[in-house]
Every structure is written in structure tokens, then in C-alpha cells.
Amino acid sequence: MNLVVFCSSGQDLTTGTWIEMFSPFSEAVLLGLAALAARDRIKR
To answer: How many other CB atoms sit within 10 Å of the CB of residue 17?
Structure first.
């Protein structure tokens, strides 16, 4: 969703902008993995 905004504005896609765009997704993935790991430990 943010990718269209960055491309249409003519800004260069630097590493910083990529990190800003994908940090919400990566945070969600990491939280999900942490929750699964914690749940697995609690089950055992």
C-alpha cells in the first residue's frame, strides 16, 4: 500500500524507505513467531 505512494512521488527507494515500509509487516511476523514459540513451550 505504501509502495504506490513512494513510487508515484518520485522518491528514490533507499534502504531506509524499504525498512519503513516493511517494518510493520516484519514486526507482526516476529510477534507471531514469538507467540507460537511461547505457546509451544507452555504446552510442554
So the answer is: 14
How far apart are the C-alpha atoms of 19 and 40, rounded to whole Å? 30
Backbone φ, ψ for residue 14 (5° rounding): -85, 175
pLDDT band at 2 (very low <50, low <70, confident <90, very high): very low
CA distance 33 to 9: 34
How distant is the alpha carbon of residue 39 from its chain centre?
22
Say if residues 23 and 5 touch (Cβ distance below 8 Å).
no
What global pTM score does this model have? 0.49
Closest CA to 13 of 23, 24, 2: 2
